[in-house]
Design goal:
This is Beta-phosphoglucomutase. The protein is of the alpha/beta class and 219 residues long. 43% of the residues lie in helices and 11% in strands. It binds 6-O-phosphono-beta-D-glucopyranose (BG6) and magnesium ion (MG).
């Protein structure tokens, strides 16, 4: 493995616990259409764009919508999601995240965001983290959903770090696959069984020792 010179963070489910709000809002949408989906199916929605998520949900419910209805449903889902995150603050940063970000900042390691979400900037502002990022690449900047590596390749380019020197933190299967396809080191945050394709998996940032990160920066 090459020395790590830049770090890319996914947002939802990595920096903030917003993954549960995406789940709630999609679940409500499916229920309103008369069906449901499981938490296991929800793993397939993590990291995936808004459009692709709705396409998958409709497939699960054997339902189709006209183009107009499709757009309306996405807007309703997003409004619901935004209503869940109105009061988001720095208190909602997941445990252990700030410690790692601060360490990387002290070590002068550039930090980039690589998220599928179009709501990334307001979330980073609400949590007071926006200034910590040297680059932000989100759902407004990409045309291909994870597992396509586009978002991470742009994120690496924006901080001027070669892909083999990048480390990606991800909570989704699609995101881990995207990092692997990009040729970057992947660290999964979540369950080992789900994220087994990642180079390393931790159940949360609290489990990551600073020494572990230090080694990645020096060896
Ligand atoms: C990803 C989330 O980060 O962003 C997905 O894991 C979400 O659940 C996707 O659907 C798109 O987010 P948004 O905020 O643009 O609807
Ligand atoms: Mg995520």
């Amino acid at each position: 493995m090459s020395k790590i010179k830049g770090v890319i963070f996914d947002l939802d489910g990595v920096i903030v616990d917003t993954a549960k709000f995406h789940f709630l809002a999609w679940k409500k949408l499916a229920n309103d259409l008369g069906f449901d989906f499981t938490e296991l199916q929800n793993e397939e929605l993590k990291g995936v764009s808004r459009v692709r998520s709705l396409e998958k949900i409709l497939e699960w419910g054997n339902t189709s919508l006209s183009e107009d209805e499709f757009i309306k449903k996405m807007a309703v889902k997003n409004d619901n999601y935004l209503s869940y995150i109105t009061n988001l603050t720095s208190k909602d940063i997941l445990p252990g995240v700030s410690r790692i970000i601060d360490f990387l900042t002290e070590e002068n390691i550039p930090i980039s965001l690589g998220s599928a979400s179009k709501n990334a900037r307001p979330i980073l502002k609400k949590t007071g983290l926006i200034e910590k990022f040297h680059a932000i690449v989100d759902g407004n900047d990409v045309s291909k959903a994870k597992p396509d590596p586009e978002v991470f390749l742009i994120a690496a380019e924006k901080i001027g770090v070669a892909k083999e020197n990048c480390l990606v933190f991800e909570d989704s299967v699609a995101g881990v696959q995207a990092a692997n396809i990009a040729g970057m080191m992947s660290i999964g945050i979540g369950e080992k069984d789900v994220l087994h394709e990642a180079d390393h998996v931790f159940s949360s940032f609290e489990e990551i020792e600073i020494d572990f990160i230090k080694k990645l920066l020096t060896t």
